[in-house]
Amino acid sequence: MIDKTLFTKKANSEIILVQIYVDDIIFGATKDSLCEEFVAVMQGEFEMSMMGELSFFLGLQVKQSKDGIFLCQSKYCKEILKKFEMESCKEASTPMPSSCYMDADVVGKGVDQTKYRGLIGSLLYLTASRSDIMFVVCLCARYQANPKESHLKAAKRILKYIKGSTNVGVWYPSYSPMNLIGYSDSDFAGCKLDRKSTRGTCHLLGSSLISWHSKKQAYVAFSTAEAEYIAAGSCCAQILWLKQQLADFGLKISKV
Q: 99 pLDDT exceeds 90?
């Protein structure tokens, strides 16, 4: 109902899930025979190659074990460090200083827009497995129209942080309670340019982090309560989406 590229088939208590992305397919089942049947049907209809157990997909490295699944983008991290000539840079312990307050920097010296936008685009793709850099990457992304040296310096600070944390990723344990938990937070008038607040949310299925985002709010809040309320509303909207998505997987969650 939610994701039109997701297909499911149930056979008694067993289920197979098929996810399609352009011309790539990921599938998994609770029983090997369902996978074998699906492979035979697809290869009988189309020219397709079976790549085996999932280990790499769209830049995501997937490590499976009996204890759980680990997702990371360490190979991609090394590629963007090389692309932006930061392979030999010093490592940073955090993606941005706690005292960093970015603004338009009107009097600052401009930098190459194409290079800056390429860097931000590369970092945004990395947030698929790195919730720890989501806030600062989205903050730097606000200044792509007219980037200055101060903005480029902040973006390069993220690369220095990545240099020392290339193997960081997301861990999904095999045994985790099926309860849905959502968190939301907001600053108040954090943007110096338009006094808009920035909200952030994250959602966990049991102990597994499955969704996160950071975004500047659409309009100016007149109080901290209003800014928090907008963030909570965004969090609830995502929860409703996740509930329906999980229902498509066969997981009915009544309490959030």
A: no
